[in-house]
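Section 5: illustrative case.
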C-alpha cells in the first residue's frame, strides 16, 4: 500500500458540511490535517482550513454562481496532477461530495488515472439548512418521503429530466438545490402537476451560518416574495407541509444575538472563550486582537524578585497573563510552584484565580471588586505595614496598586513580567466587516484594547468606523478610556466579567424577533 501511495499520492474527497464549521465529520477534519494540498470550494467554510497542516498548500477551486474560477475539467486535472506528485490531496466540497457536488465526476477521473481515493461523506445542505431552519424534512403527521432535486438542470439539455408529475403528487417533501433562479418555473410546474398552490415553501439561504436567511411563503406566492426580497443563492428550497413546523421548532435564527456582528478585541489567545460565549447566543463574532503578549526586553528585575521570593509576604496577580508569564519564567529558570513557598497569593478576578489553580495553587485573597482598587481595599483591611509585596505586572499597568500599597507602608516590588504590544493591522475580515457596517457591537475588555485599536486605525478613522456601533465595555476604567477617546459607552455590566458583559449585550439586543 505505502508503495502505491508514494508513486501516486492519495485523494480524500471530503464533505465539508453546509457551513457551520462544527458540522464537518471527525474523519473529514482528520483528513484535512493529513493533507499536503487542499483544494476547496466556494461553499466549504474557510474556517475549516484552520485544521490544515502548516505546510499544506491551499488552493481555492472557486465557483460563484456559475462564474467559475476554474472549469470542472481543470479541477479534475489539478487533482490528478497533485496526486501524481505523490501528495496527499484533500478535496473539500460543500455539503456532501456526492450530492449535486460533481464528486462522482471527480472520482471517475481519479479511477481513470489509477489514483487511490476515499470518500468522506458530509452533511448535505438540504439536511443541514432545513435542520437549522427548524424544519424536519419528514414527520409522521405530514409526510413519509423526501426528495432532493436539482433546480438547475444542465442548460445544454433540451427537455427537463425532472419527473414533475411524480414529484407533485402525494405529500412528499421536495428539497430543491440551486433553485433560486428557476423558482418561478419550479413553483408553476409543481402546481401545474397537482400540488396545491397553498403548499408551504421555505427558502433557506446560507443555512447553518450566522448569515442564514429564511423566507417562507406558498407555491403561489414564493416566487414573487423572493423577487421582492431580492433573495439570492446559495439557498435551498423546501416544499411541503413540514415547513409549517418551523413556527414551533425554530431554534437557530431566533437566538437573541442572531444576525448581530460583534467584534472581540481581546488578545488572540484569550478571545476564544468570550467568542464562544457570544456565538452561543447566535452572534457572528469577528475577532480582532488588539493586544499581543510578548516577553519583556529584560528578565533581570523579574528574575531578581523570583530569586528573593521567600522574602515576600504576598504575591499579587492581576491578570491571566501575569500568571502565565510568571509561571513560564519559573519554568525557564528550572523552578516550579514550590518556589512560592509560604508567600500568600492575591488574584484579581475569577479567570486569574482559575489560571492559578491550573498550577495547583489556591489564591488566599480574591477581592470582591475585580479591579486594582479592589486589591487596595482588600489589603486595606489587613495589617500590611512593613510587609513586602511582589507584583509581576504588565509594562503599561496602572500605578494604583504600587502607589496605594506604598501609602500603607508596604514595600512593593513590581517588575515587568510581560509586554502588551500593538499588532500592526486588523484582520482583513474584521476590517471589511467594520467598513461594510456589519459590526453592530464592539467589545472592549480593557483600556489597552481601546487605546490599541485607536493606534491601529488612527483615532479619527476609529470614531468614523464606530459611528452607530454599540460600544460594550467591561467596566468603569475601560469605559473612561472609551469616553476620553470620544466613544460613548452603551453597555457596562454591573460586575466586571465576560459572562456579565455577555449577559448585558444579550439584554441590550433582546427584542421581539422580526424576520419570518
Ligand atoms: N454538495 C452540496 C451541494 C452543492 S450544489 C451539498 O451537498 O450540500 C450547490 C447548492 O447547494 C446551492 O446552490 C444551494 O442550493 C445548496 N447549498 C449549499 N450550501 C448551502 C447552504 N449553506 N445553505 C443553503 N443552501 C446551500
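Designed sequence:
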Amino acid at each position: 500500500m505505502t508503495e502505491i501511495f508514494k508513486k501516486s499520492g492519495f485523494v480524500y474527497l471530503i464533505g465539508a458540511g453546509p457551513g457551520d464549521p462544527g458540522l464537518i465529520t471527525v474523519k473529514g477534519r482528520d483528513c484535512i490535517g493529513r493533507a499536503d494540498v487542499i483544494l476547496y470550494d466556494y461553499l466549504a467554510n474557510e474556517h475549516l482550513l484552520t485544521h490544515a497542516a502548516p505546510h499544506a498548500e491551499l488552493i481555492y477551486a472557486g465557483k460563484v454562481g456559475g462564474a467559475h474560477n476554474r472549469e470542472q475539467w481543470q479541477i479534475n486535472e489539478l487533482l490528478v496532477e497533485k496526486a501524481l506528485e505523490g501528495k496527499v490531496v484533500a478535496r473539500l466540497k460543500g455539503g456532501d461530495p456526492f450530492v449535486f457536488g460533481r464528486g462522482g465526476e471527480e472520482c471517475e477521473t481519479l479511477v481513470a488515472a489509477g489514483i487511490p481515493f476515499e470518500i468522506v461523506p458530509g452533511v448535505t445542505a438540504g439536511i443541514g439548512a432545513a435542520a437549522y431552519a427548524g424544519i424536519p424534512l419528514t414527520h409522521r403527521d405530514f409526510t413519509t418521503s423526501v426528495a432532493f432535486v436539482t433546480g438547475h438542470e444542465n442548460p445544454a439539455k433540451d427537455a427537463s429530466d425532472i419527473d414533475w408529475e411524480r414529484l407533485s403528487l402525494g405529500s412528499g417533501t421536495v428539497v430543491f438545490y440551486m433553485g433560486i433562479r428557476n423558482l418561478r418555473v419550479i413553483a408553476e410546474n409543481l402546481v401545474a402537476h397537482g400540488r396545491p398552490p397553498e403548499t408551504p415553501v421555505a427558502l433557506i439561504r446560507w443555512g447553518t451560518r450566522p448569515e442564514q436567511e429564511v423566507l417562507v411563503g406558498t407555491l403561489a406566492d414564493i416566487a414573487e416574495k423572493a423577487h421582492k426580497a431580492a433573495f439570492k443563492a446559495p439557498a435551498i428550497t423546501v416544499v411541503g407541509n413540514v415547513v409549517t413546523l418551523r413556527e414551533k421548532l425554530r431554534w437557530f435564527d431566533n437566538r437573541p444575538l442572531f444576525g448581530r456582528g460583534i467584534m472581540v478585541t481581546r488578545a488572540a489567545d484569550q478571545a476564544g472563550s468570550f467568542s464562544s460565549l457570544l456565538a452561543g447566543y447566535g452572534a457572528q463574532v469577528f475577532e480582532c486582537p488588539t493586544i499581543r503578549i510578548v516577553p519583556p526586553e529584560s528578565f533581570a528585575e523579574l528574575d531578581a524578585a523570583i530569586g528573593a521570593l521567600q522574602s515576600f509576604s504576598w504575591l499579587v496577580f492581576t491578570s491571566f497573563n501575569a500568571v502565565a508569564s510568571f509561571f513560564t519564567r519559573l519554568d525557564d529558570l528550572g523552578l516550579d510552584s514550590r518556589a512560592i513557598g509560604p508567600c500568600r497569593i492575591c488574584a484579581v478576578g475569577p479567570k486569574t484565580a482559575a489560571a492559578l489553580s491550573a498550577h495547583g495553587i489556591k489564591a488566599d485573597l480574591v477581592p470582591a471588586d475585580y479591579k486594582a482598587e479592589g486589591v487596595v481595599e482588600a489589603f486595606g483591611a489587613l495589617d500590611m505595614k512593613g510587609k513586602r509585596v511582589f507584583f509581576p505586572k504588565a509594562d503599561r499597568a496602572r500605578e494604583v496598586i504600587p502607589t496605594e500599597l506604598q501609602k500603607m507602608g508596604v514595600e512593593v516590588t513590581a517588575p515587568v513580567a510581560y509586554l502588551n504590544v500593538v499588532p500592526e493591522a486588523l484582520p482583513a475580515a474584521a476590517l471589511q466587516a467594520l467598513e461594510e457596517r456589519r459590526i453592530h457591537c464592539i467589545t472592549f475588555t480593557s483600556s489597552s484594547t481601546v487605546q490599541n485599536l485607536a493606534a491601529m486605525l488612527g483615532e479619527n478613522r476609529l470614531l468614523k468606523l464606530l459611528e452607530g456601533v454599540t460600544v460594550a465595555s467591561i467596566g468603569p476604567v475601560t469605559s473612561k478610556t472609551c469616553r476620553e477617546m470620544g466613544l460613548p459607552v452603551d453597555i457596562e455590566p454591573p460586575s466586571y466579567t465576560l459572562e456579565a458583559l455577555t449577559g448585558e449585550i444579550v439584554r441590550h439586543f433582546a427584542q421581539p424577533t422580526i424576520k419570518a
